[in-house]
């Protein structure tokens, strides 16, 4: 398969994946997990309060609740950390990707809070950001491989340059 066609197919697959996964996440964030409209607003603005509670008071939670809240919040956003820099190279830089997703995550938490289908929890933002950052690992590895020392071309010796 020609490399141009292969690149187009990979790009199409990445776009389909990003759109599909985004729709799936919107469902789970606003409708899934048996979310119901609550009366009253719940929020946590203290960093690591909820995380610390799940870790220190683990015996008060069943494993499913504990795992979903700690590891699920991380894993759920890993695909975005992979797909967004792949499709939007300007977000391949950590500071730009972080700024984008902080904005997106604060918006999601605020919408859940306003719609009373979840709580605004700064710890969700922290865990989701960890997921985004972990999702970038394949890109970081690729960049590091490209920067590895290579034999200098055209000199006929084994001198290495960057």
UniProtKB/TrEMBL annotation:
Signal peptide: none annotated. The keyword tRNA-binding does not apply. The chain crosses the membrane at residues 12-33, 66-88, 100-119. This is VanZ family protein. Keywords: Membrane, Transmembrane, Transmembrane helix. Residues 18-136 form the VanZ-like domain. It comes from the Bacteria. The keyword Ribosomal protein does not apply.
